[in-house]
């Protein structure tokens, strides 16, 4: 049996430091917005080369609070990838704005900078590139279009902890980056958690207020805020795991290299890595013309796979009101019909990768 992702083994590798982190929080007598959150914010900001990090409850709220802190709301349009996890779109809807999908580059699967200008209207306020599957989107041309049209850039980094763009870690290229520490992400908590990184001190300050009832000083509320704080406990657990992120990403890269080499002559479309990107392989996504049957056969052979994602956001019932008909975003629709994510993770072995390769040689 080769599971898609063995979360239990990942966390058991850090059992000692996780237990120590729990004891620290237990004995501190302080459970919300204390030392652990402050320290994790500093450590994570340093890790991704950003001036500030603000811990929040989860990745979706990291995205929606960041949009809110940028002043985006009702009547505004925000450009989002047609090919992403629906949370990117939901954040736009949650602030009352309208998601406007733009198709991905058909090779990198990330937002295509050449298609963005055509989607900009007088209402467009922001661009939301997603570093999908752990690979940075082509940020320089996206930032250039944004500057030209006076748009904010909010990156969705939920799948890309440690990913590099032109040698520099994602974290402060655009105006802000939203992060998720959902357990299955490259840096995962033992529950829900999220953060925003930015070099904009005023934006960070607004986010600190928004996550905490719109208050910077206890019982004084400057805006209508939320309760969306990163827990002390999750912050402590994340601090215990942060030192393992680099080696975990390195193992993922090793597995990815093995797959790319071993699957070269198998009838699958393999991931392509543009020269500007050093991915962290949150997912290793292949395409196959008969994806569902391939997934079934792999399951019979004891190999776990997942589809990221089976239905694109514009065809979900939740977005029926946008009236985007099937066939109107053909690149995203083709991707959703063919993609399959192979097992990959920080505790997976090369022997397991070889077994996946052998099975695909037989079954694909
Ligand atoms: C996981 C994910 C999110 C949402 O994060 P949560 O912490 O689960 O709310 C947003 N965007 C992308 C691309 C994701 O993969």
From TrEMBL:
The active site is at 185 (proton acceptor). GO terms for biological process: polysaccharide biosynthetic process. This is dTDP-4-amino-4,6-dideoxygalactose transaminase. Keywords: Pyridoxal phosphate. Gene3D superfamilies: Aspartate Aminotransferase, domain 1, Type I PLP-dependent aspartate aminotransferase-like (Major domain). The modification N6-(pyridoxal phosphate)lysine is found at residue 185. It comes from the Bacteria. It comes from Rivibacter subsaxonicus. Signal peptide: none annotated.
């Amino acid at each position: 049996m080769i599971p898609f992702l063995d979360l239990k083994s990942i966390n058991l590798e850090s059992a000692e430091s996780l237990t120590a982190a729990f004891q620290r929080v237990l004995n501190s007598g302080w459970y919300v917005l204390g030392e652990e959150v402050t320290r994790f914010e500093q450590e994570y900001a340093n890790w991704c080369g950003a001036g500030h990090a603000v811990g929040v409850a989860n990745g979706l709220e990291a995205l929606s609070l960041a949009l809110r802190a940028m002043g985006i709301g009702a009547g505004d349009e925000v450009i989002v990838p047609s090919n992403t996890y629906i949370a990117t779109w939901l954040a736009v809807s949650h602030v009352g704005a309208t998601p406007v999908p733009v198709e991905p580059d058909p090779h990198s699967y990330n937002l295509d900078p050449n298609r963005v200008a055509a989607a900009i209207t007088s209402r467009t306020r922001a661009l939301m590139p997603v570093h999908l599957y752990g690979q940075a989107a082509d940020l320089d041309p996206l930032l250039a279009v944004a500057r030209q049209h006076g748009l904010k850039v909010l990156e969705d980094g939920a799948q890309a902890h440690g990913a590099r763009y032109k040698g520099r870690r994602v974290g402060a290229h655009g105006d802000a980056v939203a992060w998720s520490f959902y357990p299955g992400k490259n840096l995962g908590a033992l529950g829900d958690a999220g953060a925003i990184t930015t070099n904009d001190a005023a934006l960070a300050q607004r986010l600190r207020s928004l996550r905490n009832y719109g208050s910077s000083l206890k019982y004084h509320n400057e805006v209508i805020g939320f309760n969306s704080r990163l827990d002390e406990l999750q912050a402590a657990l994340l601090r215990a795991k942060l030192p393992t992120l680099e080696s975990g990403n390195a193992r993922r890269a090793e597995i990815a290299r093995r797959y790319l080499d071993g699957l070269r002559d198998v009838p699958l479309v393999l991931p392509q890595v543009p020269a500007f990107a050093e991915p962290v392989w949150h997912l290793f996504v292949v395409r196959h013309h008969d994806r569902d049957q391939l997934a079934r056969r792999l399951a019979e052979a004891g190999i776990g796979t997942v589809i990221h994602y089976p239905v694109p956001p514009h065809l979900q019932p939740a977005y029926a009101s946008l009236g985007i008909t099937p066939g109107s975003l053909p690149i995203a629709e083709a991707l959703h019909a063919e993609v399959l994510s192979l097992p990959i993770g920080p505790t997976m072995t090369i022997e397991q990768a070889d077994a996946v390769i052998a099975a695909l040689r037989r079954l694909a």
